Amino acid sequence: MSDFFHLDARVPGRRLLQSPGPTPIPEAVLHALMGQPMDMGDPRVDETIAACEAGLKQLLQTAQGNVFFFISNGHGAWEAAIENLVPPGGKVLVAGTGHFSESWAVQAEALGRRVVRTPWIEGLAIDPQAVAQALHDDPQHSIAAVFVVHTDTSSGITSDLAAIGAAMRATGHPALFVADVVASLGAEPFDMDTLGVDMAVGASQKGLMCPPGVGFVATSARAFAAAQANPAPRYYWDIVARKSELSYRKFCGTSPQNLLAALRVALGLLQQEGLPQVLARHRLLAGLVHAAVQGWAEGGTLGFFAQQPARRSNAVTTVTVPPGTDVDALRTLAREHYQVAFAGALGPLQGRGFRIGHLGDQNPALMLGAIGAIEAALRAQGLPLGDGVGRAVRRLAAGE
Ligand SMILES: *Cc1c(COP(=O)(O)O)cnc(C)c1O
What we know:
Elements lengths: L3 H4 L8 E3 L8 H6 L10 H18 L5 E7 L1 H12 L5 E4 L4 H12 L3 E4 L10 H9 L6 E7 L1 E2 L4 E2 L2 H11 L4 E5 L11 H4 L3 E5 L9 E7 L1 H9 L9 H4 L4 H4 L6 H17 L1 H23 L5 E2 L11 E5 L6 H11 L2 E5 L8 E5 L6 H17 L7 H11 L2
Helix pairs in contact: 3-12, 6-7, 12-13, 13-15, 13-16, 14-15, 15-16
The chain binds pyridoxal-5'-phosphate.
The site of pyridoxal-5'-phosphate has 13 residues, from helix 4.
């Protein structure tokens, strides 16, 4: 019987969620979800929205930017970027970095935009020169925007936004710089104003430690002006119509009060810990997973998908497995018997690897538990392995 209550059966202790989204939700955030609805005119609603806007602006490190929310997941926020910034039939350059960049490109095509792609080279981060070359090859300036996925959650690769932005600016091409920070916000340094990003695209259920359901974009003045000038027909996603002091306008209808209450608390937790400390914690935890993968790789069959060590994500690690490995069986064993849930590989990588999320409400003990359980599942499947757990433990003790 797979009724809801059966699926929801209590797990002794807790099941670790090592997915790169959705991620575990802190207790304080769960509690914030439980409030009774308020009258839409209650000033507390506006206050909650304002706190979420301010907290996100701080996290995105933008003084100038405007934040616009949608009741959506990341795909909704992607659609907002496409519909607001790219005119009907217009062109967008999508920098190839894996399954997520390709999905965004396909979505833009489905919405009638023309897509120029830079090649996705497996295992490598975005090549800033390839982006610059594609802009260079567009002397008519018909490319309205460049879409860059900061951390490609399928590849476990974080591209260098500063280098990409610099390469773009060096061409003199006026295309808008749009960054998907769905998987990187709260895990990697991101400074929207310094990077010169015109639009940042995010969602609530990854580094922000909330349930899925709130998508958002933050815009520079240039991006907002482009949206104002864009004749693309749109309604729900139209940020121009959303620019208002009225919560009813900001959300194109009823605001998701409980989700916003949760987001406010989550942003407060990040602020309390301190952004530098949050980023340092993610680096530390990623280091533990990287140490474990290095240990496992000594068995001769497992490895990193990301070939450039400096570009390995602080949010998620993609581990390659030998052909014939039953990744689904591995995940089921780990989830159902060892109580650790991790992700499979996506798109063209499906069946060739798995992904360990180390994003959001995580700490060293949780990570070591997860690494140990995953190593047990790998051993139970008969994969030859070096000592991953030991390496991770030694890395933690060495305080590197
Ligand atoms: C998860 C993710 C998305 C899509 O978000 P959904 O909420 O699943 O629609 C987009 N981009 C990146 C980088 C992601 O990690």
